[in-house]
Specification:
The protein is an alpha/beta fold. The chain has 22 helices and 27 strands.
């Protein structure tokens, strides 16, 4: 466990956790240390070197130096200031002077730091090379603008897990030898690397193969990586930011909708892009690019509203999905209380029932962990969820654990996922047969449960899967062999050589077969585990102290979901595993906590974003709809995330239809 220590930065004593990077400790205490390449949740790369500081009389890099008790740090000295200015001059060498049309202008870190370091002249030159732009589908890469800070590479590897980007040779001339003697040491080292490299694709082609999250463009400090659809659409200072919560899954990612008027002759607001604060949250492709789902071109329709009132008078059931806010869920619950409607939401009902059955064993109404704790785990098991699509941020947490935290993990799912397989060598994917999740939970209990504390009937049941079997093993042993060899030896009496026989021994390898009795765990064969599963698991678990189990909808909808829920509760209660459950849709957790849900529909159904006898829909053109409703990006409200937090969301795009609140049917 980390210990609280005291360090001194620029004469200010601050408290931090032992082992915290100095840069993070400074930021947490509002102390400025410049840094371009560093990302808070990723491994340090030391690419920019601008975070150089003095620690106890020696220069070090704040992004990579870990805090120790009593450490004294200076963020600015004459030599450090000289290094930083030289580094910024180098970054500006051959950088195109096109700020007026660059998409990053106004929010460019190269601009900001050039001004911060007072760079008003240029001391260095080098011959430029061809750096033609690349169209990578949803991304546009301009090597001419790239400063090779490697943020894109680092975020793709450490946070997202795609490993789609890398540095490749630039093909430039070598720097003049005199620069090595004339320039500050760190500035020269950074420039030498910068001059040799640009960003390329790990697959060796010019076709980007990834999950299209766009995080690389988000973290780019300059205009080198830009979302293709945003290019030349707007200056940063023209956009207004609307803080919101992403409505695509249960991760609850905090985003901003960047909006401005549609065109000169159309004053209506339009979303131009979605941004995230990448030091705290990463987005998936749906969250970043799927922002234009508003229910557009809707007008107030009093006739449709009157028909809706009549439909509510006839109805005995309201059927809906969990892509609604907590406030909408509360309105539905109040309607149920007043008018006796059945509320039907099958996926939320499955989750609600699963939570109730889990609580009978765990003693708690909700799972105990979250994605932040999961990312810090040393060992993770994923079960019953396709991480890539069910909740991309859960996949990011899994990846962050096995890369940055040097952890290991097992991914159980009927379908292999090449993205998960490619994360790290310490990830084992097991493509089991469908509906084997229950057996896997028994296996987890068997391998990790505290047998002294588990209920005796569970211990006995687990023991029933074990038997002994005799196997033949072959091992190599060294055996001493004596050989009679003939040698020529000089006869001292006759002075002549004679042939004699000599005994010589040597150790030779020999394969020996023997029969041994071993434990045979039937659960391993049931789930299709490989013969070396036990050996691989033993390797994964070395020096691991923290454990996470993440589960998903395949368990909530399992034919034996009740027993699966109880087993999950046992795992959390009687092993070292902390637990994260992935709610199926955007606000499934909120709905499950707010609404009393029914299993069966009545005779006349109001459908909300699902088909009913009378349908309310925010899905827009092409959907079956009797009365339009606003989409999530057209509402103010809250959503409950996988991390058990209630997150606010706001109106990004206006809604032209009738705003429906609580109304009376009397």
């Amino acid at each position: 466990m980390s210990n609280t220590i005291t360090i001194n930065i620029d004469g200010k004593e601050i408290q931090t956790q032992e082992g915290t990077f100095v840069l993070n400790a400074a930021r947490a205490n509002d102390i400025f240390i410049p840094a371009i390449c560093y990302l808070t949740r990723c491994s340090p790369t030391l690419a920019c070197r601008i975070c150089i500081v003095d620690i106890d009389g020696k220069q070090a890099y704040a992004c990579n130096a870990k805090s120790k008790d009593g450490m004294s740090i200076s963020t600015s000295t004459e030599n450090i200031d000289k290094e930083r200015r030289a580094i910024m001059e180098v970054y500006d060498v051959n950088h195109p002077l096109q700020c007026g049309v660059c998409d990053q202008s106004g929010e460019c870190e190269l601009q900001n730091y050039t001004l911060e370091m007072g760079v008003d002249s240029q001391s260095y030159t080098v011959k430029d090379v061809d750096r033609s732009a690349h169209n990578w589908g949803h991304l546009h890469y301009d090597p001419g603008l790239c400063i090779v800070c490697e943020r894109c590479v680092t975020s793709c590897k450490d946070m997202i897990g795609d490993n789609a980007l890398t540095t490749i040779a630039r093909g430039a001339d070598a720097l003049e030898a005199t620069y090595k003697e004339e320039m500050p040491k760190d500035a020269y080292a950074m420039w030498n690397k910068l001059n040799k490299s640009v960003i390329g694709l790990t697959n060796g082609t010019d076709i980007l193969d990834c999950t299209s999250c766009g995080e690389c463009a988000s973290v780019c400090p300059v205009g080198a990586l830009v979302d293709t659809e945003f290019m030349y659409k707007s200056n940063a200072w023209e956009l207004s930011q609307v803080p919101a919560t992403c409505g695509h899954c249960s991760a609850g990612c905090q985003i901003t909708y960047d909006i401005k008027h549609t065109s000169i002759d159309n004053p209506e607001d339009k979303i131009y892009r979605v941004m995230n604060e990448w030091n705290y949250v990463s987005l998936c492709g749906a969250g970043r690019y799927g922002f234009d789902y508003q229910n557009a071109n809707v007008e107030k329709d009093e006739g449709a509203f009157e028909k809706a009132l009549e439909a509510f008078k006839k109805a005995d059931t309201i059927k809906f999905t969990s892509t609604i806010t907590n406030e909408e869920a509360y309105i539905l619950e109040k309607l149920k209380d007043k008018y006796g409607y059945k509320l039907v939401n099958n996926e939320a009902k499955s989750f609600q029932t699963f939570l109730a059955n889990y609580a009978t064993v765990s003693g708690t109404s909700l799972y105990g962990s979250d994605l932040k704790e999961m990312a810090k785990s040393g060992f993770i098991i994923s079960l019953g969820t396709a991480l890539k699509s069910d909740n991309p941020n859960a996949r990011y947490a899994f990846n962050n654990s096995v890369t940055v935290n040097k952890g290991a993990g097992i991914y159980f799912h009927p379908v292999n996922d090449p993205v998960v397989d490619g994360m790290n060598k310490n990830v084992l994917s097991i493509a089991h047969k469908p509906l084997q999740e229950e057996a896997i939970l028994y296996l987890i209990l068997d391998l990790f449960g505290d047998k002294d504390a588990l209920p005796s009937d569970i211990v006995s049941y687990l023991a029933s899967f074990h038997s002994t079997k005799t196997i033949t093993v072959t091992e190599t042993v060294k055996e001493k062999v004596i050989e009679i060899v003939k040698e020529m030896k000089l006869n001292e009496e006759t002075g002549e050589e004679e042939e004699i026989e000599v005994e010589k021994s040597k150790m030779v390898p020999k394969k020996v077969s023997k029969e041994v009795e071993v434990d045979d765990n039937a659960l391993l064969s049931m789930i299709g585990a490989a013969d070396d599963f036990t050996e691989v698991l033993e390797k994964f678990l070395k020096k691991k102290e923290t454990f996470s189990l993440v589960i998903g909808a395949d368990l909530y909808n399992h034919p034996n979901a009740k027993n699966c829920a109880r087993l999950v509760g046992l795992v959390e209660k009687y092993s070292k595993f902390t637990l994260v459950m992935i709610p199926s849709l955007t606000n499934t957790l909120g709905v499950a906590l707010i609404n009393e849900l029914s299993d069966d529909e009545g005779e006349y159904t109001i459908g909300y974003n699902v088909q009913g006898d009378f349908t309310l829909s925010a899905l827009g053109a092409g959907s079956a709809c009797d009365l339009d409703m606003p989409a999530i990006n057209q509402q103010e409200g809250t959503l409950t995330s996988i991390n058990k937090r209630v997150n606010p969301t706001n109106v990004a795009i206006s809604y032209g239809g009738k705003n429906v609140g609580v109304f009376s049917l009397d």
